[in-house]
Each structure stands twice: as structure tokens, then as C-alpha cells.
Amino acid sequence: MCAIGACAALVVGIVAAPAPEAARQPERVKLPDVPWLSREASAQLVGDDGEPGPVFEHAIVGGSAPSPEVRERIAAFARANHISIALDIADGMLAAIRIEVTYGGCCGYEGADVLALRLHRPHLGGGCTCPVDQVLPNDWAFTTADRVHGRVRARAGTIGVRWEAALSLPDLLERADALLGQRASDVREAERPRWIEIEPGRRYLLEQPYDFGTIAGYCWPPPLGGRDDLGFQVATEHGRITDVSFVIGDEADPSALDARWGAPHTMVRDTGESTWWLRDRVVTAEYGWHGRVTIAQRARR
């Protein structure tokens, strides 16, 4: 046994021992903030009508693939401004321009909101029928006067844009018609990231660069499953596409549908609703506000 004073000294010595080096917490090093995209750079990136800005000179969506010199100029702009720019090239053509801009720091959403205004971000709510004065959707699309289609996503301090050449109604009808009967998995692989799952194994949204109209009139942005302003509503059975529907608006020209499928087999005189009974599908067109085209497989007998 030790004397009481000696034991106490030993205990004090153990408690006061310094922590091992491995147990000490490393000092946190604050990474430098990436500077926001300047107002001048924003004007170079996005034009006055929301189209690709001057930095994309000689890079026209729907046109020939830009030269290596033009691509390098665009890449240098992206590096200098800490943003992401991708040029989607297919069959020697510039199919799309995709950009992503992130505003860091505590207030990055403010910079993102300013850029969103340049990209036609709609305002919802207000009036005597909505419980809120203003709601800003995080997903929207627009078409410029020069027929450039923009699809925009806002996520906190990040704005993502995909620019493409806008489709005409005949081109849209051709795309929809070609989908029927295809394997959903094949379309999903070919159309990433346009293919959005709404109901697993059954319903999908397939985005299209077409002016379907806006979501004005809503108090809140509908879920993606109900977003008729972004693309096709697609239904599947047993892994194959059986139904494609989309809105055409009250200004759609019925002659485009007649040119695609011929004279309708039935027509409702009061509403103008038309139906085409084809070999393997039934096409129905409803005209007027929020008019809709539906292409569905015929039931096999």
C-alpha cells in the first residue's frame, strides 16, 4: 500500500497528462469562396431574351458543330468564370448547350435569382384566388422570339439551363408518334436527363423543346407529374410505351394534325374534338384552351 498523499499525487498526474497527438482535432482550413459570376459575364453568357449570349457566337443550337477555336473560346470563358458549359454534338450538329452556374456563400440564392430573371422565370400566385402573393417555380421552360428553347432548373444557389432549337408542331407530332411501342428502357437511355420517372414502371415525363405554354394561373407549381408545360406525359405497360399525350394550346393549327394522320374519322361538331382510328393506334385531339393530343395503342383482339 502507498501513503495517502502518494496515491493522490499519482491520480493527479494521470488526469493532467496531455492528450496524444493522434487524438487532437486538426484545425479547419476555410476554403476561399469562388467569386460570383459578374454582371458583365452574365451578359456574355445569357442574351437579352434569355438566349445563349455573345460568348456563344458561331455556336448556334440546331446548326453545325462549332469549330475547335470556338469551342476553346467557350471553354476558356467557363474556366475564367468558374462555371460549367457543355456542348452536346450529334451527327455533326450542335444539339444543345448546357450550362450550370453556382453562386456560393451564405447568400448564393440571391445571385441565382438575378440570373433566373434573365431566363424568364415565371411568377405564380397573387390575385384574389391565391393564398400567397408570389411563388417562384424551380422548374420552367420558355421559347425566345428567335425560336430558341430554354429549360431551366433552380436549386438553391445553382441555376442549370439547357438551350435547344425549338420544335415545330409537325416535328413534335412526329416525335410523339414514333414513341408508341418503343421499349421504355431504350428511350430512357437515349433521352437522359429528359426522362423523368413519375410513377415507377408506369408513368413518365419526357421533356421536349416545344412551347407548350406556361403554368400561369396556378397558385403553386404543380408537381413534375402534372407539368404539361415541359413535355410529353408517357404511360407504359410491360416495359413498352402505350400512351403519349401532350397539350397543344388554343393556337395550334389543326391542319398540322391532318397532314400527319389525314382527315379525322370522327369529329364532334360543337367542340371540334377529332379522332383518327389507325391500324395500331388511336389519336384524339381536343382543341381550345389547354387542348390536348393523345396517341394510344389500340387494344389487340
Structure in words:
The chain is an alpha+beta fold. It has two domains: 39-165, no CATH class; 169-297, no CATH class. It is built from seven helices and 13 strands. It has an eight-stranded antiparallel sheet with strand order 6-7-8-9-13-12-11-10, covered by helices on one side. Strands 1-2-5-4-3 form a five-stranded antiparallel sheet. A hairpin with a 2-residue loop joins strand 8 (231-237) and strand 9. Helix 5 packs across helix 7. The protein is globular. The N and C termini lie far apart (100 Å).
> Shape, please?
globular
Task: Label the structural class.
Answer: alpha+beta
Order of helices and strands: HHHEEHEEEHHEEEEHEEEE
Strand content: 25-35%
Counting DSSP E segments of at least 2 residues, the number of strands comes to 13
Percent helix range: 10-25%
Largest sheet: 8 strands, antiparallel
Total domain units: 2
N- to C-terminal separation? 100 Å
Mean pLDDT across the residues is 87
Low-confidence stretches: 1-19
SS summary, helix count = 7
What spatial order of strands do you see in the largest sheet?
A: 6-7-8-9-13-12-11-10
Whole-angstrom Rg? 28 Å
